[in-house]
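Review form for a predicted model. The reviewer records the input and the model, then writes brief findings.
Reviewer: anonymous (R2)
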Amino acid sequence: MVVGARNAAVQAKIPVSVQSGFHVNSNKPNEEYLIPLKLTWASTGALQPGEVVYPKPSVEKYEFAEKPLSVLTGNFDLVANFKIAAKAEAGPGAAAGKLRYQACNNRACFPPKTVDVTVAYQVQ
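Model under review:
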């Protein structure tokens, strides 16, 4: 849960777990045809979305690609920055987001998916 006062800058860590044997493309893949990892937020009025900080990717070579790819594996956090609106009502709420990714194994990539992400907050 994110807790803060009006006009405060706050952060939420979004844990991500990629199944063993798989990877996801980083937020800046090396090839145009690959789907980047992307976290987006719907505007709630109380929380104003800011920059999302992605972890440093690794560069790996796979059978299906000519060039090494920029990927993320295992467990990592995305850090979502928000600003609490000046006129936000005190009390609890939730920010709704979408995480889009493309999972791949060492032979091929699968169709992209989008999952819902929710961050609970408390305005003081």
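Findings: The chain has one domain: 2-86+95-119.
Further findings: The two ends are 13 Å apart (CA to CA).
Recommendation: see findings above.
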